[in-house]
Amino acid sequence: MSSLQSLREKLQAASVEYQKTQLDLSNAVEARQKLDTQLAENELVKKEFALLKPENTVYKQVGPVLVKQDQAEAKSTVDTRLEFIRGEIKRIETQLKDIEAEAEKKKSEIVEIQTAIQQHNQPST
């Protein structure tokens, strides 16, 4: 009965690890969605900046106050932010692939342990 107990303990540990992996996956997906939103917002700002004339004034919100900002500086800030967001999206995409691969590995491990438990529980003939 000792090996059955050992298999059950392995199954419990693998299940806990799988649940943790699923949580990590969920967090990574949420982070990816936030980045998508930020990317869309900043691309919209960049499009609006393209419509500006040199004489238009640009303001930046600092706390509750609007502060006049140089147009070129504002455009540069948005471009830098877009570059950063795209880099973060690539990083998260790689992380998602790694987590998905780990989840599949854990899932296979759980199936193997469950199969071993079922075989152990079958009466010998």
UniProtKB/TrEMBL annotation:
GO terms for cellular component: cytoplasm; prefoldin complex. Keywords: Chaperone, Coiled coil. Residues 4-48, 82-116 form a coiled coil. Pfam families: Prefoldin_2. One of its GO terms (biological process) is protein folding. Belongs to the prefoldin subunit beta family. This is Prefoldin subunit 6. It comes from Lentinula raphanica.
